[in-house]
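Re: the 197-residue chain
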Amino acid sequence: MKNTPIPVAVRMVDTGIGMKLPYIESSTVGEVAGKFSKASTAAKDDAYQLAKGSGGVKGTGKNPEIVKFTEEQLSTKPLYSRDPEKWQKKGGKIEISEEGIWTYIDWEIPPNRVSYPGGFSDFKSAGLVRQEVPIGEFNRYDIDFAKADELAPNGPKLDENTWHHHQDLTTTQEVSKEMHRRFRHMGGMSLAKKLKD
């Protein structure tokens, strides 16, 4: 019985002449039973880890793969961005491209990915910007927010959102307060203040 072949999948095979033909993949009863047993054990372990509060699932706050960054890498970390070790312990990940651009990846499913080209958070490429409003030279948060609300093509920002000051020193971007807080950064307002000093 264990060696009895059974169909397990239908795959399409390219014939090389522009046609694909179905191919029935088979396995033995014993192999399928073994895989099912392993999957069942893994699922029980995952449920146990979830109940314990570990594993990489949202809300569990644990990441089993903490990457240690070198001093050289840490010297290129974007200003005000989250501490890499703490971020990973929450379940997030960090990638550094060959060009040296840091990308923080959170623990949501699907994850939000915010890159920091030039050391500034790029909420737009991450798909987190609802609208952009050019307001001219930055002044103060309250004044800039009122001006952005007034000039916004889609109307004032939503209550759950905030205006992010872009590093171009003239544009505000409507972004979720939660994402704006989660992906800490040096923004245009900080830059404007530094340039005035």
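Residues 5-52 form one domain.
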